[in-house]
Amino acid sequence: MNKEELVVINFRKLFNKMAWLNKNKMEENLKGFKSAEVHCIECIGKNVDPNVTKLAESLYMTRGAISKLTKKLIKKDLIESYQKRDNKKEIYFRLTNQGKVVYKIHEELHKEFQERDKVVFEQVTEEQFDSMISFMEKYSKHLDAEIKKQGIEIH
């Protein structure tokens, strides 16, 4: 196995381990919510004037899937839609009070997981961080280009 394969395999293993380790706590604290719903709430909470296109790009989902998801979240009173006075065509989303509660629980869980894993990150030097970030950005740009080749616009 070459180093390229090792990197990809280890990325996958790392992601799967994190997901597995976090899964029970997430499900326990966010009962009744699907992962896509929580991540959509997170995305709406972190962005200014998020619309269907912005959410689709951020979550790597189709605009149709985002439309269905946001309708569900509106029905559950977790988000609401709004329009700007100067742009009556575009529809944006914001969290309701109930949506803010879910957002806060999710953020607190992420902080807890970050605290749990702090022991590893404390050992990483600035140069190592810079190198890892640089590599991930290059790889991400490459994957964006490959996605675009398939006719799917992400950004």
What's the structural blueprint in terms of helices and strands?
Layout: H1 3-29, H2 35-46, H3 52-59, H4 63-75, E1 79-84, E2 87-95, H5 97-121, H6 126-149
Helix pairs in contact: 1-5, 2-4, 2-5, 3-4
Relevant terms:
155 residues; mainly alpha; Arc Repressor Mutant, subunit A; two-stranded antiparallel sheet
Overview of the structural elements:
The chain has 155 residues and is mainly alpha-helical. The chain contains six helices and two strands; from the N terminus they run H-H-H-H-E-E-H-H. It folds into two domains: 34-123, Arc Repressor Mutant, subunit A (Orthogonal Bundle); 126-155. The protein has helices at 3-29, 35-46, 52-59, 63-75, 97-121, 126-149, and strands at residues 79-84, 87-95. It has a two-stranded antiparallel sheet with strand order 1-2. Helix 1 crosses helix 5 (97-121), helix 2 packs across helix 4 and helix 3 packs across helix 4 (63-75). 11% of the residues are buried.
Taking strands numbered 1, 2, ... along the chain, how are they ordered across the largest sheet?
1-2
Average per-residue pLDDT, rounded, comes to 93
- As residue ranges, the low-confidence spans are none
Q: DSSP strand (E) fraction?
A: 5-15%
* Structural Rg: 18 Å
Structural class: mainly alpha
Fold-level CATH name of the largest domain:
Arc Repressor Mutant, subunit A
Kindly give the count of domains.
Answer: 2
| Proportion of residues in helical segments | over 70%
Kindly provide the name of the CATH class of the largest domain: Mainly Alpha
Number of helices: 6
- Using the alpha-carbon principal axes, give the shape: globular
